[in-house]
């Protein structure tokens, strides 16, 4: 049997308990320490960021220059005598500099380890070089080679410098497993350096402010850049600039860089293979690059194009995987591009040729797929009929005339240097970039298509004499965009929730007619150099800005355009917005309707001259403060705002409303009838609202107030407003106030009391009536055969009482009923019953004397009995 422990030795108990507590909490403390050390918080302490091994292992030394020409701090034969250098400088026994820490304290023109004019074999490894030339441009570096061959830079941390590792005129070197991050210029930079290998380095977060690159090559050839990590750099992950040729960029990870993941500018015969290039602005970008192979790369969610080729020739793009990028593969002003086996989702191939030779020079076969279906590319065809196509995502036509693309579900359609084609009744969606693209094409009809969720739904470049009509264009960045395109007609399109509905840029003699543009940022935008366009009968409803005219220096203003009979309404900010870097002038505005806009017209950066009326008519402005006394539809005074004057504003004074029924302050129990007379030559809509609510009860003639609405109202005072507006949205109203009363008067009979005996004389009565709108009182004693009115408490009419009395016998009942009616016609009622009683009807001769005699005898007997 166990013992019961008592506290005879409390000190011992306390010590044992404390020991057990510490023993139990120790694993938790260790766990917390692990969590704290693995939070992923970026440590801004440079030495901790730079640490490769235990800092006690580093030998702290000053910056130095090794120059085998004798112009530095050491030659190699001198440096080997230092404690931080050993070896003999041959292939099997290179000079080794290792485990040193060189801190520059921001020295502006100094590099940490600077090697010059060297051909011996050497290795710099496991060292930390930082804080050199952070604000001095790109000449200072952590490790710097000039005219150096056969060196190896291995497993060093060269961060927080101007450049992490910099090679100039240096060949056959190896740069491997280094960290070159958070430098103000480049992580690793090669200038005029050939046949070097850069592998497994981390060059991340370099120069976010000044936009340089993780790895930069300039005029450097034959280098291998393999398995490096370049993340979060200000400009490019990897950049081959200024004619760098025959380099291999293999299996690198280029993510989250500010501009391009991988860039080639002016270089030929480069190979870009097996890289992960994702989450950058552009993925792979080639400009003026020829005979380049871009293959087997993975490109995901780059903000703009995954692969862009500009002004380049004879490149091969194949077997790349493009997933959900802002754009797919874009080829601009380039020749002889071969595209094979590329898998694309979200956006496909876009060609922007400037010449017919460019448009027809490419090879694109159906092994390229967009959203799981093949891409079709046709060249030099006539009379193509691509109708009811199944399982196709994209159609590209180059120099194809009289083509028909119809009744097909597609992601993208392109026509280049093609004439007289028809694109109709297609559904073009599921593409993050452009829907329908025309370049240098003439006489195209684009009709009846549905275009959703794109950057630009319909895009015309250098394309003329086309018709864009009856399309549904919703939820795009730009609905229709014309660039250097003339004599086109944009007609009766329905456009909703596009950021920019219709945009014109340096385009002339186009007609924009009868389109409906709803919501978005801007309804119609003119971007410089747009002239002689007609904009008519469009409805622009509820964007931020209705029509925006922007001019820019060197690109011209927007002049001599005609805006007529458009409705511009509910613009949150501005109806017509001029931004005049150059004058937007000599445009004509008339018979337009400006309704409920934040501002109807606004000039920015100066005022330009435009015409706001013809010789006899201007525009309708809903905030016009004048009158039309002669009812000719023209305001009697001009409409003026800063920078504009409409001499003949359209104006009608609004409908005239005469309300005859109901009359003000009528008391009502039932829905009232209304009789109104409304006169206006342009009458549009009539309605009423109750108690100033926003709900409209539309009416067409005289009638009664809606019964359901009436029933929902509480009793008391309320109002009805009868409205009418005209086709110009001028609105007037008349208001009537009434009182709803559906409760009948309440009557309380105080006298006489129920079932009182009453005699021949008519009784007095006293009643109380609860009613605010009492109209009349009456009573009846003969069930309503005769009603007797009264105004105050009194006596029942004696004549009527006698007539009733004489026709009744004793103990017969008399019903006395009181009534009250209020002004709304509600009737209150109360009644009591009275009993007819007349004592004279009960008398019998001698009967009373006999009673007195009997009472006397009984009294005497009672007294005698009491005495005994």
Walk me through the structure.
This protein has 868 residues and is mainly beta. Among the domains are: 158 residues, no CATH class; 131 residues, Pectate Lyase C-like (3 Solenoid); 85 residues, Immunoglobulins (Immunoglobulin-like, Sandwich), CATH 2.60.40.10; 97 residues, Sandwich (Immunoglobulin-like), CATH 2.60.40.10. The protein is 9% helix and 43% strand. It is built from 7 helices and 84 strands. It has a 15-stranded mixed β-sheet. Strands 3-4-7-10-12-14-16-19-22-25-28-31-34 form a 13-stranded mixed β-sheet, with no helix packed on it. The longest helix is centred in the N-terminal third of the chain and has 27 residues. The radius of gyration is 49 Å and the shape is elongated. The N and C termini lie far apart (104 Å). The N terminus is likely disordered.
Radius of gyration: 49 Å
Mean pLDDT: 90
- Output the structural class: mainly beta
Number of helices: 7
Q: Would you report the number of β strands?
A: 84
Tell me the major beta sheet: 15 strands, mixed
Instruction: Estimate the strand proportion.
Output: 35-45%
Distance between the termini: 104 Å
Name the helicity range.
under 10%
Pfam families: Beta_helix, NosD
Transmembrane segments: 12-29, 842-865
Domain Right handed beta helix: 418-550
Domain Periplasmic copper-binding protein NosD beta helix: 111-253, 255-351, 558-626
